[in-house]
Structure formats: C-alpha cells, structure tokens
Amino acid sequence: MNENLNMSVSSIVEKNGQKQVYIIFEDNERSAEGKLPDAKIISNNGFTDEEVAALELYISANSEDIFAMAKKVNIMDAFLKS
User: Fold this and answer.
1) pLDDT digits over 8-56, tens only?
2) What are phi and psi of 11, to 5 degrees?
3) Alpha helix stretches (DSSP H) within 33-82
4) pLDDT at 80 (0 to 100)
5) Is the CB of residue 23 less than 8 Å from the CB of residue 57?
6) Angle at alpha carbon of residue 27, lines to 24 and 33, rounded to 5°
7) Burial status of residue 31 (CB atoms within 10 A of its CB: 0-12, 13-18, 19 or more)
8) With contact defined as beta carbons under 8 Å apart, do 2 and 27 qualify?
9) Confidence band for 81, pLDDT divided at 50, 70 and 90
10) For the purposes of burial, counting CB atoms within 10 Å of the CB of 44, is it exposed (0-12), middle (13-18) or buried (19 or more)?
11) In this structure, are residues 64 and 4 in contact, taking their beta carbons and an 8 Å threshold?
12) Cα–Cα distance between 60 and 79 in angstroms, integer?
C-alpha cells in the first residue's frame, strides 16, 4: 500500500442510538470510507480487495484510538477554518 496514505476521522455521530465514527483513507489516486463500530469499508474507489481487507483490519485493531481521535474533533472549529 502507498506510504503516503492519509487518514481523516469524523466526530462521533449517533445513529439509531449507536455511536459511529467515519474514517476516510486517501492518497493521490484512491479513497475509501470506513465506519466504526462495524470496522467495515463502506465505499471504495481504487483500493484492491486485499488493501480493503488490510484497512478493515487496521480499523478494527485501532478502534479505541480512532474513537479517542473522534472525541477530539470539534465540528465548529473545522467548519470555521474552511
């Protein structure tokens, strides 16, 4: 996988009473969106099946850290900076 893969994490959102976090992986040519707590890639543009499996494994193995990052995301700060 490309060493220049970037990851962005959403704030925690609540849907149907469940806390969820969305994760975007992207490089210059490809992107994929994952979701916690499912630890699944829900959209993929350019990653191979093997890479998608690796991303899902990463999400699952790092779910606590990803949720911790999401807790620190302030939507208003992000909105005002754009």
Assistant:
1) 999 999 999 999 999 999 998 999 999 999 999 999 999 999 999 999 9
2) -75, 170
3) 49-61, 63-71, 75-81
4) 66
5) no
6) 20
7) middle
8) yes
9) low
10) middle
11) no
12) 28
Q: How many helices (H) and strands (E) does the chain have?
A: 3, 5
Each residue of 48-69: b (16+ CB within 10 Å) or e? eeebbeebbebbeebbeebbeb
CB contact at 8 A, 22 and 34: yes
| 40 half-sphere exposure, CB direction, 13 A CA radius | 4
Tokens of 4: 């220049």
Token readout for 29 is: 């040519």
Looking up tokens 């499996």 gives: 53
